[in-house]
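FW: tagging you since you asked about this chain on Friday. Here's the raw sequence from the shared folder, copied in full. Didn't touch anything.
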Amino acid sequence: GSGLGTSSILGATLLGTLDRIAGHATDPAHIARGTSLLEQMISTRGGWQDQVGGLWGGIKLCTTRAGIHQVPDVAPITPPASFTRALHERAVLFYSGQRRMARGILETVVMRYLRGERAVLDSRARLVDGAHAMAAAITAGDLDEFGRRLAEYRELKRTVDPASVTPLLEAPIDALGRDVASWSFAGAGGGGFVILLCRSTGAAERVRAQLN
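HL: got it, structure written out here
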């Protein structure tokens, strides 16, 4: 319920460990597929994004081709050192105090997609475009554009499932005021951890103090 993909990453870790014990080659793509199957078996309804996030290090852009068999293509992104430094200084990760399991949100999104709801289909296309635009912003070292895309991502998630962002969860962020430039929930939303991008290093220090 943290929003950090830990169920998928734990599953991937266990499968990788079993591969090594059995003397098999540890192939991240194979483990990612196995983790997807595992999550369906135990009814957590996971996809492939979270285990890819854990199996391949660093910042990356992940894509797949259409079809039942999803084979992620992982492209590493190398940001300028100035971007990485500014992100460390201005980003704050905090726990909302609200746990959530992604299954309910994922089931809602999939059902709305299968019904062909226009808002969900339009949001899907914008989410894909936004991922590529965010990758370009990171490559260019543009933290402000990164922040704008982060906010857009949050609002698109709200469109595909309004329950993913609730007034109860927004209230503590609103209380932080203008020090917060952009934010989004980690994972599918509805609880868990929140990433905040503050307007400056000083703003981040004030936000951390207020949250503490």
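FW: Residues 46 and 173 are 28 Å apart (CA to CA).
HL: agreed, and The chain has a mean pLDDT of 90.
FW: great, closing this out.
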